Amino acid sequence: MLWKQESFVVLRPLQIEFFRNLLENGDALSGTNRTLTVFGYNYHVQELVFVGWFYHLNPSLGINNWYSNFGTFRGFARPCPPGGTN
């Protein structure tokens, strides 16, 4: 009930420097969205990479040995620069 009593309090996300350099599984595939229809509702989901893409696992632990959930990435990450995927 605390949320109801203090419903006008604005909570701001914490800006902690430590978390700025973490690996994000959606950044590698920005712009690769798919539309999935479930029970008549459309969902626009972004493709995400699996842990094997970051850690150069061969074969990948993902389904079908893919490195992303829709199969766009079929190889692990290349070192930066230039980056990208194999």
Rounded to an integer in angstroms, the radius of gyration calculated over CA atoms is: 18 Å
Low-confidence stretches: 13-19
> What is the CA-CA span between the terminal residues?
52 Å
The total number of structural domains is: 1
If you had to describe this structure to a student in words, what would you say it looks like?
With 86 residues, the chain is of the alpha+beta class. The chain has one domain (23-86). The chain contains 2 helices and 2 strands. It has helices at residues 2-5, 51-55, and strands at residues 33-38, 41-46. The chain has a two-stranded antiparallel sheet with strand order 1-2. Strand 1 (33-38) and strand 2 (41-46) form a beta hairpin. It is globular and about 40 Å long.
Keywords:
single chain; 86 residues; alpha+beta; 2 helices; globular
Which helices and strands, and how do they pair?
Layout: H1 2-5, E1 33-38, E2 41-46, H2 51-55
Antiparallel strand pairs: 1-2
Overview in brief:
The chain is of the alpha+beta class and 86 residues long. The protein is 10% helix and 14% strand.
